[in-house]
Specification:
By secondary structure, this protein is α+β, with helices and mostly antiparallel strands. It has two domains: 252 residues, Beta Polymerase, domain 2; 56 residues, Methane Monooxygenase Hydroxylase, Chain G, domain 1 (Up-down Bundle). The chain has seven helices and seven strands, in the order βββααββββααααα. Strands 2-1-3-7-6-5-4 form a seven-stranded mixed beta sheet. It holds the Pfam family CorA. Belongs to the CorA metal ion transporter (MIT) (TC 1.A.35) family. Keywords: Membrane, Transmembrane, Transmembrane helix.
Amino acid sequence: MIQYLTLTPDNQITEVATVDQATWLHVENPTSSEITRLSQHYNFPQDYLTAVLDNQEISRYETPKQSELVTPLLLLLQYPHQTLSPSGFRQIQALPFSMIVTPDILITSCKEDLDFLPHIEHGQRLNSNLTNETEKITTQLAWLFSDLFNYHLKSIRIETDRLESELQLSTENKQLFELMDMQKSLIYFNSALDQNLNVLQKVYESNLIMTSKDSLTVVFDIIIETKQALASVKIQTELLAQLGNIFSAIVSNNMNIVMKVLTVITIILTIPTIIGGIYGMNVALPFSNDQHAFWWLLLAIGLLSLFTVWILKKKKFF
C-alpha cells in the first residue's frame, strides 16, 4: 500500500491524491509490482525496498559516490516492534525501516503496520527551524525510533522491578521464561542501536542529506540520545543477567525449603504408621488386653511425634 503525503505550512502531515502533490511517499509491506515500479521510476536498486521484507536486515547507509544528491541514497534504520514470544510473553524485536532520499521526494517503507504519523505530527523536532521537508521528516523519524527504544527500555525496567518483587515466593519457571524474553529483547536492542548509531554518524559526516547547521545539530542530538539508549541497554542487560542467576538460586532454594517441610511431615507421619503396623499384627503384644490401650498408644504417638519435632528443630532441620 502506497500513501502520498505532504507537510502543510503549520507542519501537519496531509495525505494527498497524487504523487505530483506529494513530498513524501510511504510504502507499507511493498509488493513486487510496487517495488519494481518505484525503483524504475526513481532509479534506485530494488533492494532498497526489499530490505524491509527481511526481518534480519541490518541498518546501513548506502549511496554511490557523489558530491551532491543526484542519485537516491538509502538510510536503513531499525525500530522496536512488540510481538508475542513462543513462551507466551511479550518480546520486542528490531525491524528494518527504509528511508530512500531522492532529489525530488522522500520514500519510506516498512513491513509491519507502524502508526507513526501522529507521533511525527506532535513531535518536538518537527516544529524546529528546518526548512527542508526531507530533513524534517527524516530527523523526526530517527527521533521517533530513538524514543521508541527508550520507551520499551523503561517498560523492561518496570517489568524487572515486578519480577524482583516476586522472587521471594517463586518456585515456578514462569518468571524465568519471562526473564529470558526480556534478555532476548535487550540483545535485539543492543544490536539495532549500535547499527543505527553507525548510520547516524555517517549521515552526520556526510553533506548529502543534512545541508544546514540546524539539521546537523538535530542529527547530533539524535546520536547523543542513541548513545544514551545504548548505554542503558548494556546496563539493563547486565542487571538481567545477574537477576537471572539470583532467580535460579532463589527458585532452587524455595524448592529445597518445600522439600524439607515435606520430609519433616513424612518423618513425623512415619511414627504412627510404624506403631499402627506393629499393633496390627495378630500376635501377643504389650497392653493388648488393656481396655485403655488405644488411648495409651495415642498418647505415645503424640509424645514421640513432639519429641521428633523438637529434635529436628534443635538440629535446625527446619
